[in-house]
Fold each of these.
Amino acid sequence: MNLIKILCPTCFEVFEIVPPPFSEIPAELDYDCEVCCSPLIIDLFRKGDEITVESRTLSN
């Protein structure tokens, strides 16, 4: 299973998550940083056969 790297917009540390099935993307995930525990939103998009990721704080 391929993991996706996420950059936390609060502490700027990188952690990895298991993505949802490709058929369920685009998706918006409510997630807590695995390093600093800050709440964030992870947006997943399809670009061809690849998944692109954006992370943002809840205040954005």
Amino acid sequence: MIIVRFSTSLKEHFEFRRLYSKGKSAVGPNIVLYARKRDRRENRIGITVSAKLAKAVRRNRVRRRLREAYRLNEEKFLPGVDLVAVVRGRGVSAPYRVLERELLELAGRLGLLR
């Protein structure tokens, strides 16, 4: 088993804002995915869940699910992209497989898959 590790976390507020304003987006029932190409080889991913949607335990659970879905499919993504996944209302209670399928589908729509 080959482990590919070319991603880091997106943490700064201004980086999220830049993606929202200048990046491309794809919308699904559970997730909105924003993406923007960059000149580095590594990918950066950020996941946001509004406090209005659920309490901290449920928000963190959906974050962990999306992070794991990305990690397991990381080799399918093209390198050099910033990604932000914004969880919508229905996404908080969506099962892992649904989130994983939707993440890959939205990435495919944005042309981010190999």
Amino acid sequence: MVEVDVVYTGSLRCEATHGPSGNKIQTDAPKDNMGKGEAFSPTDLVATALGGCMLTIIGIVGQKNNIAVEGAKAHVTKEMATEGIRRISRLAVTITFPQTYSDKEKSLLENAAMTCPVHKSLHPEVDAPVEFVYPE
């Protein structure tokens, strides 16, 4: 269990404190929702969490199987629904690996990404395609 404390500081901004470490982050409402867009919005953090989670699980599988994955990158594009309730409608992820791998290694790494807890926690209505890119 991890506890996070979030305080509304005014002007559509919040400060969150990570209980175990004491690290802090700020959020700001995006420009298209009455904010200044000067920090990650809460929905930006969902996109960030998805990319970070996928890379972390890839890293865990890499360590367990002696597969070098340092330098792997995740690019996440967040799209908001344009009709109805304001929500994330799409989180498209491109994971780019730093080197080529055997078919078995690719399978392990790609399965790791697809089973990350954030990806598995997304609502079924969120379109979350994932593309894996390897060097030629």
